[in-house]
Design brief:
Number of domains of chain A: 2
Mean pLDDT of chain A: 96
Order of helices and strands of chain A: EHEEHEHEHEHEHHEEEEEEEHHE
Oligomer: homodimer
Strand order of the largest sheet of chain A: 14-13-12-11-7-10-9-8-15
Radius of gyration of chain A: 20 Å
CATH superfamily of the largest domain in chain A: Dihydrodipicolinate Reductase, domain 2
CATH topology of the largest domain in chain A: Dihydrodipicolinate Reductase, domain 2
Number of helices of chain A: 9
Strand content of chain A: 25-35%
Chain lengths: 308, 308
């Protein structure tokens, strides 16, 4: 049994409270030593306003989990790396591709572990889906990621600003699964629907293909009320695979497959502990590359204003 | 003396006629064996409608230069690679980052050379600038890339469509130089001005920084009449470097440096020949990464309609 990793968390918002802090508390691999946040608080450990204060006062700190919005994450990540700390990045790993490239190189030089986390890849159906697809010829793929932004992101203004990515904030979860279970693909066209009073899209219709010409279609929509949809359907020459509920349910030709219970963030923190202990990094930019490609290549349409 | 490389060219438009065809004709490293184009023609060699026809009828073909708009380039590039041809890509190397990643992997597997060309890197002042800056501490960088789109891209509708990149078509030349002569940097914010009747920006104001916090500012504008501006100004602790006329003129503290005459495309084709003969590829995505980051992270403002 090795000593727990002394970790600090930066950015006490919804995702930190819902997922990171309970998982860190429950894991024998970690001991939470402090948090830093401009707005949020967390009982039982020292609370700082900034990461710089946390680093200055917590001499034994070994790692940090960065949970603030992507637009504000680079400076903290670089400061942490330069202080010799291992860094866990919430998704997306940055507001730009170039900054994540720079962090990756900085972590390599400083000899610390950098982990760009994609929590949906740790949904229970994802690895079985990847394994099943790896030996089959794919005919077509259809992705539907449709949810109610008012329910999941109440009052989160940053998500609508430039760099907040809008509906790609959940959509990148679908892309993180798709890039993990499918052969490499790329965008051929997209339509992004942007509320006239916002910078980021509320919906996206994305067409991709791969080297074999497979049609891959994705619909992202944040205006879905009632039942929520997070489905990836893959037609193969050998039957149909459906990952639903964001990867928590897997069916093969309509038959439910037995899966362990959902434990995405536990999976992420297990992976981060393994990276730290082996001195490795894991930074896969592909989901963010597809999002950037959609902004670069996609056609924009102005739609009805969105107010929270 | 090795035999000349038997090359075909696809996409006989303005850039092919102005640059590629004269340079291929004048170079001892190449023999032009055919062209393929939907609209253009070229005298003295067989003309085909499509790359597929060219490949089918020209058994001795060894390489192709792809000069069509980026939105249409992937399919041709993949077909050429799979036919065992070396591929020269005009800039930008694709309409998306993901497709260029896929081509890079396909070329590696097939054992052919892939060259993502960035012609401005072969402007005569660029290598001297890179060398001078490599030993100096940089204080700030200012990039101004301002030209008259009506003069340089008359009636080129594809450039205004989604994926055509608008003012980033010339702007990516500035980014290709900046990424070559400066330490790694990333975008912190941008404003893109998009004509209300177009998809692509006519102007951009871009703020970047690097790991040292250096301010790097770029202005791209396609509405410049009169004198045209393609300048990169770098203030260092040790004097001021100015690359102007797109890299054709270099001054250090106001003193003009002696440079050879402009020969960007000759430089590109020399490089491609060297890659083909050594079995190597050269695909640097950084300029396109910065463009994609600007679309992903930048704020859009609607401006006056643009008509040609």
């Amino acid at each position: 049994m090795t000593d727990p990793i002394r970790i600090g968390l930066v950015g006490v918002g919804k995702i930190a409270r819902d997922q990171h802090l309970p998982v860190i508390d429950a894991s024998p691999d970690y001991r939470l030593v402090a948090v830093a946040s401009r707005h949020g608080e967390h009982a039982g450990v020292p609370n700082y306003r900034t990461l710089a204060e946390m680093i200055a006062e917590q001499g034994g700190l070994q790692a940090v989990a960065l949970c603030q919005p992507p637009q504000a994450r680079f400076e903290a990540a670089l400061a942490a790396i330069e202080a010799g700390l291992h860094v866990f990045l919430e998704k997306p790993p940055g507001a730009t591709l170039a900054e994540v490239g720079l962090l990756t190189e900085a972590a390599r030089r400083r000899g610390v572990s950098l982990f760009a986390s994609w929590h949906s890849r740790f949904a229970p159906g994802v690895e079985p889906a990847r394994s099943w697809l790896s030996t089959r010829r794919i005919r077509s793929v259809s992705i539907a990621w449709m949810e109610d932004v008012r329910h999941w992101h109440p009052g989160q203004d940053w998500i609508w600003e430039a760099g907040g990515m809008g509906v790609f904030d959940p959509g990148i979860n679908a892309l993180s699964i798709a890039t993990h279970i499918l052969p490499p693909f790329f965008l051929t066209g997209a339509t992004l629907e942007v509320p006239e009073n916002r910078q980021a899209p509320i919906a996206g219709d994305l067409r991709f293909t791969d080297a074999a010409g497979t049609p891959i279609h994705a619909t992202f929509d944040w205006r879905q009320t009632g039942p929520q949809t997070w489905d990836i359907r893959v037609e193969t020459e050998d039957g149909t695979l459906v990952l639903s509920k964001g990867g928590a349910v897997l069916t093969l030709d309509g038959r439910d497959q037995p899966l362990p219970p959902e434990a995405e963030y536990r999976g992420l923190y297990d992976r981060f502990a393994a990276l730290v202990r082996s001195g490795a990094s894991d930074v896969d930019l592909n989901p963010l590359i597809h999002a950037a490609d959609a902004f670069l290549r996609g056609e924009r349409r102005s739609v009805e204003a969105f107010t929270d």
